[in-house]
Amino acid sequence: VSVDPAPADAVLWARVRAGDEQAFEQIFDRYSGRIYTFCFRSVGSWDQAQDLVSVVFLHAWRRRAHAEIVHDSIGAWLLGVAEHCCRNHRRSLWRSSRLVGRVHEQLAEVQHDFADEVALKVDTEAQMARVLAEVSRLRRHEQEIIRLCLFGELSVEDAASTLGIAVGTAKSRLSRARGRLKTALEAVEPPDRASPAADQSGRPSPSAPSPSTLTRAFRPKPLEEP
Amino acid sequence: MSVSFDSLPAPRALPPATGAAIKRALRQEMRPRRRPSWRLVAGGVVVAGLATGAAGYLAFRSAPLEKIQCYSEESTNFDRDTFRGTTVAFDSNRPDPVTQCSRAWQDGLLSPAVLDGGAPDPTRFGTFPVPELHACVLPNGVAAVFPADAGVCARLGLSGYRADAQ
């Protein structure tokens, strides 16, 4: 019995460009988890990350003609859209948007926060808040490399390409940033209880989505109505 | 739960119910609006505007605003892409631009560190001071809120924002 392989991103996105909503939903199913995690790590709240996922994909739909497929993946471009939405607009733009309101209305009827789920959210949000607080104290170029390599799980090489810097420079920045961040976080709490989600190189854990390239070509414009 | 550089919270999948709700909401946003009826409405507005002159101008000024430019300083740079500040969506439920920009100030989104590319600190949302704010209307009809006294609109050659315009 032969099973049709899942269509490649390039194939799906060609249909998306033509306005195919079902193809876009397949892309959503494929990448929403990665975008959700990235947004959470950027803003420190699962609820806000959920709202941002909807905003990211709406923006991606509106900018679909400008998307770039890199190494047969649309993931890097979507991550760029997510970075843009999380970094430059934060909650003030999307909190009151019509789209987010619609999502909340629909979720109000079906969503239940079970105790375990609530506890997990509280724990991880507290954990992330401390990381974000320390990251915000780093220099700007160190924050950039941390966001790309740690939050977005890009390789150092891809991060260097994204930032338009040499790989060696990216490695040294990451090393310095990692050292400063580690020192700061260990001052808050010893690392002996840590449960690593990423290794020392800043690469993702086996359970994390595979990294891809965020190209320098991605230069998102501000969110705007079509 | 311990926090260290090497222990970020693990990746999570979007809950299925959430994903389904987002997809339903996206479908509604993705579909083109019914342009023929909009054309009729717009045509009526244009005809009425031409016929009534100044009244037409006021009608334009009263058109719903979709964005608000929250400035971090008094400025004559009205370009939405390069002005120093942040843009927020116009909330028709809370039509006062000053109130909406106040939230951006409270969250630190207009602090120099964030405007220079730094990440806002989620633990400090709602804690930043809010200066005196006043709303004007930019030449393109978009509301703009400046951290300045009530004379700012006149100084910048702008008209003041009228709440009853919404």
Quick recap:
Chain A has 226 residues and is mostly helical.
Layout of secondary structure:
The complex is a heterodimer of chains A (226) and B (166).
Chain A: H1 9-17, H2 21-43, H3 46-62, H4 75-94, H5 98-108, H6 115-135, H7 140-151, H8 156-163, H9 167-188
Helix pairs in contact in A: 1-2, 2-3, 2-4, 2-6, 3-4, 7-8, 7-9, 8-9
Chain B: H1 16-30, H2 35-52, H3 54-61, E1 67-71, E2 85-89, H4 97-106, H5 112-115, E3 134-137, E4 143-146, H6 152-155, E5 159-160
Parallel strand pairs in B: 1-4
Antiparallel strand pairs in B: 1-2, 3-4, 3-5
Helix pairs in contact in B: 2-3
Care to describe what's here?
The complex is a heterodimer of chains A (226) and B (166). With 226 residues, chain A is mainly α. Chain A is 63% helix and 0% strand. Chain A has nine helices and no strands. In chain A, helix 2 (21-43) packs across helix 4 and helix 7 crosses helix 8. Mean pLDDT of chain A is 76; it is low at 191-226. Chain B has 166 residues and is an alpha+beta fold. Helices cover 36% and strands 12% of the residues of chain B. Chain B is built from six helices and five strands. In chain B, strands 2-1-4-3-5 form a five-stranded mixed beta sheet. In chain B, strand 3 and strand 4 form a beta hairpin. Chain B is globular and about 50 Å long. Chain B starts with 15 loop residues before the first helix and ends in a 6-residue tail after the last strand. The model of chain B is unreliable at 51-64 (pLDDT under 50). The chains are: A mainly alpha (226), B alpha+beta (166). Chains A and B meet through helix 2, helix 3, helix 4, helix 5 and helix 6 of A and helix 1, strand 2 and helix 4 of B.
**Which of globular, elongated, flat, extended, rod-shaped describes the shape of chain A?**
flat
Taking the alpha carbons of the first and last residues of chain A, their distance comes to 45 Å
Total DSSP helices of chain B: 6
| Helix-residue proportion of chain B | 25-40%
Beta-strand percent range of chain B: 5-15%
Structural class of chain B: alpha+beta
Shape of chain B: globular
How are helices and strands ordered from N to C of chain B? HHHEEHHEEHE
Order of helices and strands of chain A: HHHHHHHHH
Number of strands of chain A: 0
Helix content of chain A: 55-70%
Largest interface: A-B, 85 and 54 residues
- Given the structure, what is the number of helices of chain A? 9
- Annotation, overall tally of beta strands of chain B: 5
Strand order of the largest sheet of chain B: 2-1-4-3-5
Determine the mean pLDDT of chain B: 75
**Rg of chain B, nearest Å:** 21 Å
Class of secondary structure makeup of chain A: mainly alpha
What is the straight-line distance between the termini of chain B?
49 Å
Low-confidence stretches of chain B: 51-64
